[in-house]
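Each field is listed here:
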Amino acid sequence: MRYTALSFEAPEKNRFKYMLDNVDSGWVDAGSERAARYNNLAPGRYNFRVAACNNDGVWNEAGASLGLFFQPHYWQTWWFRPSIILAVGMLLALFYRTRVARLRALEALRIEIAANLHDDVGSRLTKVAMVTEQVEREIPDSDERKPLIQNISSTTREVIQAMDEIVWTINPKNDTLDHLANYIFQYAQEYFQNTGVRCRLDVPSRLPDQPISTEERHNLFMAVKEALNNVLKHAGATEVRVALAVADGRLTVVIADNGRGFLPDKPNPNGNGLHNMRQRLQRIGGKFVLESAPGEGTRIKMEANGK
């Protein structure tokens, strides 16, 4: 074994090479530089070796070695990743429980509001309607106050109907397809009662147990209500058919009449009813299809996701 004597009078003539086992593939010539640099070393044990050469070009074959041990950072420890997964799982569980609690609180609030409107405001309006109807019956037709009392009575009944619709809309117990179908058919039957327009209802014998959101339910019903109103006031029809169907998770409502019909491309002189219906369906991601021609009646098809 040979030993190399380094020159301390001319240290710039000394040369070095080094190697980190299992990292460097061979010796690294450092020249006269007395430093070795490594980046992103994994935690663990390493053996660092260094050899020197004097100004005569003679290398120290034995060299020197140094054992190194790098402690892992906390994010490199075995427990860090499971801890992160556990923490994320706990946060998601907390978020889910908080959301469920808020939804339940909101549902309870909706039930309470619906009950208060029905029991308190509804009973008071019913009392007003009964009193005005009694006064209307007692006042002779010649009395100039008769039209005023009739107007109050009619307005009160309209307010009661509107409030019933609001109560039905905000009550979460009605957020099902079955409740929507029953309410639409009941409304249609009562709306055309004693009007001279025959109302035919077409509904499947069995509807799927499928939820429907409050927003979808409200907008779809209001669009149906507007369509029925147009049939009665503008179509001049003797018959209207209200059909409901569910296919591939989509709810379809068709309202067809045998009235006078019109040209859909022409401006509608009867107001913004068609525009409002189309907007309501677009609001819930649905479709609105209108088919009509003079003398051939009108057919309106509404589609909603029903989920």
